[in-house]
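Annotated sample (chain length 172).
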Amino acid sequence: MKNRLFWACALLSFLSIPFSAKAAGKIAGYQYYTFANGDYPLERNTIHVIPCRPQNNDCKELASTIRTEVKKALADLERAKLTIEQPTEAWSLFIQLDQRFLPMLSSKTGYQSVQTKAKGVYSFKCPAQNCLVYSTAFANNRFSYWVVIHPSWKRLDLGPGKEMAADKPLKI
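Output written by the structure step:
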């Protein structure tokens, strides 16, 4: 009897390991810009994180909303650069989108923020299978947004391949 109980408990614990390991984990990486003279790590920059399912079922919709608004603002900024008028208003709208997105993120269950450390290194615990990762940065006259839904236990480098960015217009 004890032998059967032992093997039953062992089997149950063995079966639960893959599911719990898949559900939550640590995400780490570094955040940086790439310019003509090399990489520029973003130190002491804030990264906002919300866990996706089951805590927040609307991660994909939220990420899509943010990406759509940023892309629209980028298109408006590009149009403004081509006109004779100064693109001051379009630039201001682009860099101030963050003020609209942060309340949407911070109201979600499990919201957290982390700061990048030396050389742009960061890490945080994602309590779900996926987390929505959001960040902004301004350096060397470039303003960027990063919006990514990323799985737990995977490295995530926030660099030029994942950013939506614009350089500050020369006319401003």
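Annotation: Confidence is low (pLDDT under 50) at residues 5-12, 14-21.
Annotation: The radius of gyration is 21 Å.
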